[in-house]
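ok trying again, last paste got cut off:
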Amino acid sequence: MISFLHNFSPSPNIFSLGSLTLKWYGLLIVLGATLALLVALKLAKYYQLKKEVVLDLAFWLIIIGLLGARLYDVLLELPYYLKYPIKIFYIWEGGLAIHGAIIAGLFVLYFFSKKQQLNFWALSALTATVLPLAQAIGRWGNYFNQELFGRPTNLAWGIPIDISHRPADYLSYTYFQPTFLYESLGLIIIFLNLLFLTIRFLKKQTVCPNFYKNQVFIYLISYSVLRFFLEFIRIDKTPILLGLRWPQIVSLIIIIISLILFFKSHVLVPSKRQS
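nice, full thing came through this time. structure:
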């Protein structure tokens, strides 16, 4: 695989038929969402949720999540999109920010749980458990689009980037860090960890009082830590604040809020008395 990545020059297109072109980016997002949904349907009973509820929730999460991901990216790159407004609709070229999807998803989970009178944390925990699987697969779309790669490298697994996709300061370099691969592998580990916890605690019916909340916080903290450190080697343009890239700032905010809520929930939940 290392040799393949080092020598293969990816194309964003799978095939073209007249004016219709099938893109790897879109296909991988659909594939990731589909596999995540299938796993969620398998796990639904452990979260005391009906499959019909999961399907309804998935529909809104995918639609609103994609809109949130795109809107977030547009706001970050507003001068560019004001100059080329038609590009707002070119989502097959990339530009779906996971932080925007997470924010939009939280709103969907809140209002969906209220409307259906369901446990918000149970819905959020199931979503958090399968979301990293969808992310891990979707990240490969960045590889085929030759975007969001890292700094130049001489490592054996460095990926070749066409000169048309290289930043102006790096035109003389050929091989770059495959940050998509690092993030994809990290997300697979996060997914497997959350899946293991689900099977261990829910399947065996040994649920701790804060299990649902724990699943959500584990995902948010784990992914934010992963993303924070990966941003040190990414070279795509993004706002800089206090010497940190914008995704690092957002990741730190998520980590801090999650830790506060995590410790708050554990302190406020009294432990059971020993009989």
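cool. Residues 2-268 form one domain. Residues 269-275 have pLDDT under 50 and may be disordered.
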